[in-house]
Write a structure and sequence with these properties.
Inorganic Pyrophosphatase, alpha+beta, five-stranded mixed beta barrel, 10 strands, two-stranded antiparallel ribbon
Amino acid sequence: MANIDIAPSKTMLNLLHILPAFADEAKLRLNALVEINSMTINKYEIITETGTLKLDRVGYSSLAYPFAYGAIPRTWDHDNDALDIEIIGVTEPLVPGCLVEARIIGIMRFDDGGEIDDKVIAVLADDKRMDHITSYEQLGAHWVKETQYYWEHYKDLKKPGTCKVNGFFGADEAVKTVKECEARYVSEYLPKFN
């Protein structure tokens, strides 16, 4: 996983643009670039053009991210950003900016102020503690409620009522969305730079 088949360069490689979305599609493994750890209100984002991690904002409320969070390379969602990924059940904090392989277990459909901003739900692919989790449904009804509550209220002190969860769906739907976002990356994002 750590080896990248690109010739050495004097400039930094932007992993958002050189890594494929899928590390191993048959095993539902995605490449994911970690932006945020759980239990923080700081919102970090990878700058699409440079790959640099930037503090986008400090959250307006005390609601902390209940999961690690990041971006899937070579994808482009409707919100003009890489497709987002929630990484559930992380035991040790992940280093923001690091690359992980995450195994898909579902997707959450999300409307953020009128923009589609879906979230792939995943677990760390190489964490044996999570091998038995193959579907978001195995996380339980309370996890679904907690996650929905977080996303529908994390902006309430800044823009109340602007976020809406439109349901949770299985891994097949997540794979379909990743593939759509890969195609959108090629058709909408790449032409800007050619």
